[in-house]
């Protein structure tokens, strides 16, 4: 879904990265480590390596510190916790089908493309080495570098201030509804991502593609 004014002219696009441009899900790793036992896997991801714990790495906490602190709380899960860091690439099996092509099409049209991403700085550097399209942004705000995470409005303002952008000119894409709602509240047009097909259709209707 997009919220937009009919007369608005969008001059730049702002992408999220995880679950928009590249796949990311710890289940890709832990399904294998738990031998396909979905209940055990979900219990572990809901009580040990939780989204809240992972978010602190996105905020800038070093991985070695994160693993050490969590392993001290759950010593019986130490190896499984270490795998979250050591085998992180297995959580990212590849790009989202069709979305990198949209990024390329925007670049070909000369449309500036930016990103605000919740990502640890170390893992983002690894991902850029794996996926060349993550190096093609005209500007990017990585949460682990600036110490801010979406949906905090401050990280959006960091993008605006760093690159001299007017939120009214921006088309924002994110799979997280709270992140989308913050973007809209700040004056951006925002698309709640659910697949490249719907995104392309929406962008074509707005004249971005």
Fold and architecture overview:
47% of the residues lie in helices and 11% in strands. It has 209 residues and is of the alpha/beta class. The longest helix is centred in the first third of the chain and has 11 residues, at 63-73. It is globular, with a radius of gyration of 18 Å. It starts with 11 loop residues before the first strand and ends with a helix.
Tertiary shape: globular
| pLDDT < 50 stretches | none
Structural class: alpha/beta
Number of strands: 5
Distance N to C terminus: 17 Å
Query: Order of strands across the biggest sheet?
Result: 3-2-1-4-5
Order of helices and strands: EHHHHHHEHEHHEHEH
Which whole number gives the mean pLDDT?
Answer: 96
How much helix is in the residues?
40-55%
The radius of gyration is 18 Å
Contiguous helical run count: 11
Oligomer: single chain
Major sheet summary line: 5 strands, parallel
Strand content: 5-15%
List the topology elements.
Blueprint: E1 12-15, H1 27-33, H2 38-47, H3 51-58, H4 63-73, H5 78-86, H6 99-108, E2 113-117, H7 121-130, E3 139-142, H8 143-146, H9 153-163, E4 170-174, H10 177-185, E5 189-192, H11 196-205
Parallel strand pairs: 1-2, 1-4, 2-3, 4-5
Give the tags.
209 residues; alpha/beta; five-stranded parallel β-sheet; 11 helices; 5 strands; 47% helix
Quick overview:
The chain is of the alpha/beta class and 209 residues long. Helices cover 47% and strands 11% of the residues.
């Amino acid at each position: 879904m997009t919220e937009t004014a009919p007369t608005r002219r969008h001059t730049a696009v702002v992408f999220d990265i995880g679950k928009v441009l590249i796949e990311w899900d710890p289940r890709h790793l832990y399904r294998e480590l738990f031998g396909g036992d979905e209940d055990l896997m979900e219990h572990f991801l809901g009580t040990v390596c939780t989204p809240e714990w992972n978010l602190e790495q996105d905020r800038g906490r070093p991985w070695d510190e994160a693993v050490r602190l969590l392993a001290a709380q759950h010593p019986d899960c130490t190896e499984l916790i270490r795998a979250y860091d050591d085998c992180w690439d297995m959580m990212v099996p590849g790009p989202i089908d069709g979305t990198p092509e949209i990024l390329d099409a925007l670049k070909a049209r000369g449309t500036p493309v930016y990103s605000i991403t919740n990502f640890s700085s170390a893992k983002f550097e690894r991902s850029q080495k794996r996926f060349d399209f993550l190096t093609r942004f005209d500007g990017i705000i990585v949460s682990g570098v600036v110490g801010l995470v979406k949906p905090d409005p401050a990280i959006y303002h960091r993008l605006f201030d760093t690159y001299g952008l007017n939120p009214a000119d921006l088309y924002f894409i994110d799979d997280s509804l709270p992140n989308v709602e913050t973007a809209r509240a700040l004056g951006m047009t925002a698309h709640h991502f659910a697949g490249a097909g719907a995104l392309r259709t929406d962008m074509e209707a707005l004249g971005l593609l």
